[in-house]
Specification:
Layout (H helix, E strand, L loop, with lengths): L12 H8 L5 H18 L10 H15 L5 H9 L2 H4 L5 H8 L1 H9 L4 H6 L1 H13 L3 H17 L8 H12 L1 H4 L4 H15 L4
Helix pairs in contact: 2-3, 2-4, 3-4, 3-10, 4-7, 6-7, 10-13, 11-13
Length: 203
């Protein structure tokens, strides 16, 4: 029996609801389900460079937050599911997010959003600016960014990035220091996992 490659795995809505229904109240659960649905609608037409549906990545980031970090905070889960929607949608705006999911979720998603056209021209500059922005952002912003990077690390073997070595080096050099000296055990866990996954490319 063949095993599904990691990059083709995803957290289904059924699995998400099952994990949360006894942990959060029905109103909060509906909010998370709405975030899942919006993310699915936005990302459904998109594939990643490794050929996997973009939405699978989104659900796995939520899965890291939920299953590896044991975080059941509604805003964190919604932001994990929505962290790429402003980059990938022409119709979803910060105001839309704020109206539907609250100001804090909208703040996290906006903080995690890069100017993709500018990034294509000046990738290193934009990336360093993003790290500096995260340095002054809430820990939840850093947590979701590191969770997204961790999922990407786990997909590098499937040719997700044109230059995986640079991606690993940039992440370890720029992003993990945001977590290394933190008092937050979840941030330190993500930094450790990034170091562990990244070391596979230097062994």
């Amino acid at each position: 029996m063949s095993t599904v490659p990691y990059n083709m795995t995803f957290l289904s809505r059924t699995e998400l609801v099952a994990a949360l229904k006894h942990r959060i109240n029905p109103v909060e659960l509906t909010k998370v389900e709405s975030a899942y649905e919006l993310a699915e609608n936005v990302h459904a037409p998109l594939d990643r460079k490794d050929g996997s549906p973009w939405f699978y990545h989104i659900t796995r980031v939520c899965g890291i937050v939920l299953n590896e970090l044991d975080i059941y905070d509604t805003d964190s889960l919604c932001a994990a599911l929505l962290h790429d929607v402003l980059e990938d949608s022409d119709t979803v705006s910060k105001n839309v997010l704020e109206y539907n999911f609250g100001s804090y979720v909208a703040y996290i998603v906006e903080t995690l959003t890069k100017d993709l056209s500018r990034q294509r021209e000046l990738p290193d500059v934009v990336d360093r600016e993003h790290v500096e922005q995260l340095r002054h952002a809430s820990q939840d912003c850093v947590l979701i960014r590191l969770a997204a990077r961790l999922d990407n690390f786990r997909c590098l073997e499937f040719n997700l990035k044109r230059n995986p070595i640079k991606y690993v080096n940039d992440t370890i050099e720029r992003y993990t220091p945001l977590a290394r000296n933190s008092n937050d055990a979840n941030l330190r866990y993500l930094a450790d996992q990034l170091q562990k996954e990244g070391s596979k490319f230097f062994s």
